[in-house]
Amino acid sequence: MLCVVQRIECDESCVSTLLKALDLTYLQYIVMMVLWEHKEINVKTLGQKTHLDSGTLTPMLKRMETKGYVLRTRSAEDERVRLITLTDQGLALKEQAQHVPMDMFCLSKMSEGELIQLKAQCEHLLNNLQS
Question: What is the pLDDT of residues 74-97, one digit of tens each?
């Protein structure tokens, strides 16, 4: 579903309305979905999972840290590696965001089967573009 959410031109106002109450932008929501799954991740891996580059992630993560959703630290093993850790406040946001996937599904006006097929096509396209 992440591919579908990232790559389809959505009606920005609808998505923004869903996320406004969470004080998240669309891309911040994508990042939070990954963090809710992994709790701690390095920036490089986060970029791979979200298909966002460090030039996009770095300022976004700084803003998210200012909001109290994440902590940015250096790895003890390798100082060059930046770790992103979900805070308690960021974890609490997950409960508040439980409705977003279903709301987005309803807004899509597509069947579950159609979305699954679209996701597969997006993944196929991404694989083709990366090879």
Answer: 999 999 999 999 999 999 999 998
